């Protein structure tokens, strides 16, 4: 490797200006694809290594982004991060990852760490305990680009990427009704978070559309955990008329419900059907396989990065006000044995 290879060396080899080479290496829209390819080819031949520290000092940018996720133990968020990293690598950005462990104080620490590191932007999914959004509004006030994904708050005027949670919940509940279940319980999540509020609304709408009553005693307020699923089943079984199916707000809650049902020798799906939400990887490997709603996590990560890129590297042709921008992905149903009362599971 030639440690002294510089932008000037590449420019000389191609008979162009150093400024043209610099813009090409930074994927500037004003440089043709043909020139970009030529510059990259010569840069590779000369084994040119970009000095990112020096470049950051000159440009005032770090080409780093911060990503806050609620938990690294949840496969869904891992898939979102894969999508983010795929796009970040394409555009020359490094990803700094911080998990909040579902705690607002950890979110604040993560943001402080990102600001200290000089990130160019932040992607975040809210912790389930977050009700005060001051730390996120601080980022906005200081013009640090911020995009929410999955768990969002529409009232803050921050661009976001979500799945259609209402439609996903409606589809899950409609499926259970189609399988012959008539008393469908719902294990809900914290209602200050939009995604869980929308899933409850979708569940209710599907019941109403089928002429079935919405019974508040069949709605259990959970906290998005395996233990929450267990507690909900114990609650449902104490009712004079217990439900014959459960739509859980997410898959770990559904897993807890299934574990409790199995321990109590209640047959799934014959005596009680179960559907979750998120299509976590364990769902197809447990018995019976868990029916669930996929949220397209990798695509969510890619779309979130694209929104953030628009904010970090604004283009003149952008016509949509970014603080009003929202990308909504379609939910995809995966119905397996846990809800196949009519023998139609995968």
Automatic annotation (TrEMBL):
HTH lacI-type domain span: 5-59
Entries under InterPro entries matching the protein: HTH_LacI (IPR000843), Lambda_DNA-bd_dom_sf (IPR010982), Peripla_BP/Lac1_sug-bd_dom (IPR001761), Peripla_BP_I (IPR028082)
Species annotation: Dinghuibacter silviterrae
Protein's recorded name: LacI family transcriptional regulator
Keyword Transcription (UniProt): yes
Superkingdom of origin organism: Bacteria
GO MF, any single term: transcription cis-regulatory region binding
Keyword NADP appears in the UniProt entry: no
Xref: Pfam families: LacI (PF00356), Peripla_BP_1 (PF00532)
Keyword terms, alphabetized: DNA-binding, Transcription, Transcription regulation
Alphabetical list of Gene3D superfamilies matching this protein: 3.40.50.2300, lambda repressor-like DNA-binding domains (1.10.260.40)
CDD domains xref list: HTH_LacI, PBP1_LacI_sugar_binding-like
